[in-house]
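Hi V.,

Quick status before I head out on leave. The structure for the redesign project is tokenized and pasted below; the design run finished overnight.
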């Protein structure tokens, strides 16, 4: 079975226990204003244009009518682009980059197996991330099954927005769910992610009732959810569930803004920089004071 991914990253140490290989799938039902992987939102492959690197040589325009060089200006008719990659192949300045490509489930598992010795020594394995793996349910399910046939430890990062039946279908093949808990207030959740939190919370509780191990992944965005109400909400959820191993705090970083610009995407957050470690430690201490579940920086 074929699916669309945008990266396979090896030797990851923040995507579950041990040393892991993380497979990033394209497609996501949420539209978080702070998204650090905007190239994952659309399921289809896309072309990224870094205008600051373009030297206006016109080679891309020679092979694709969707590109036009007018003076020093690079005009890209993105709406007509099929992401064939011909323009990327001829760009000498590396101003063009293709994000997203088709890959088979067997190919992915073979790639993951290359580092099996590291998994065995460190207690690591494969992590499916995105985007949202559940957005390509059949493809995700096939990867999970094949990984478990090879006795690979599996984590899956998810925003939780899919049907309960879909989660039940993958649950038996996932050792740990890295479950996003973004905003406690339902109205704020809808405002900043574009979806209701009700289905997400329902699925979280359903997985817990199945006895699945869970790590809560909590992105903290200054001026959005860096407040005591949300911190108490994180602790409350962890305390209510029976199978939460730990709480991971993910401080905001602005890398998504640059990638969004290369895709001509709006990025509402423009005035927030990298969170200082001292601030992150303060968040962690406040949450940890309200729960016995371990809290750490992701």
């Amino acid at each position: 079975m074929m699916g669309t991914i945008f990266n396979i990253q090896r030797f990851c140490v923040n995507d579950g226990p041990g040393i892991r290989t993380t497979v990033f799938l394209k497609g996501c039902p949420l539209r978080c204003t702070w998204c650090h992987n905007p190239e994952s939102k659309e399921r289809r492959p896309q072309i990224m244009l870094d205008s600051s690197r373009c030297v206006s040589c016109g080679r891309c325009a020679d092979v694709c009518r969707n590109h036009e060089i007018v003076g020093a200006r690079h005009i890209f008719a993105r709406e007509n682009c099929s992401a064939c990659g011909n323009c990327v192949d001829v760009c000498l300045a590396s101003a063009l980059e293709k994000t997203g490509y088709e890959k088979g489930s067997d190919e992915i598992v073979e790639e993951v197996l290359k580092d099996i010795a590291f998994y065995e020594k460190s207690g690591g394995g494969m992590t499916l991330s995105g985007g949202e793996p559940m957005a390509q349910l059949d493809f995700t399910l096939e990867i999970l099954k094949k990984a478990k046939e090879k006795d690979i430890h599996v984590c899956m990062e998810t925003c939780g927005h899919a049907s309960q039946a879909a989660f039940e279908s993958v649950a038996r093949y996932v050792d740990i769910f890295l479950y996003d808990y973004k905003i406690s207030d339902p109205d704020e959740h809808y405002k900043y992610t574009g979806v209701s939190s009700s289905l997400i919370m329902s699925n979280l509780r359903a997985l817990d009732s199945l006895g699945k191990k869970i790590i809560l992944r909590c992105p903290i965005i200054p001026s959005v959810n860096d407040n005591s109400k949300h911190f108490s909400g994180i602790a409350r959820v962890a305390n209510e569930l029976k199978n939460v191993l730990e709480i991971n705090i993910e401080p905001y970083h602005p890398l998504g803004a640059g990638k969004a610009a290369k895709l001509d995407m709006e990025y509402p957050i423009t005035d927030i920089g990298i969170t200082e470690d001292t601030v992150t430690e303060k968040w962690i201490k406040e949450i940890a004071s309200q729960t016995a579940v371990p809290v750490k920086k992701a």
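Above is the designed sequence. The chain has a mean pLDDT of 97.

G. will cover questions while I'm gone.

Best,
W.
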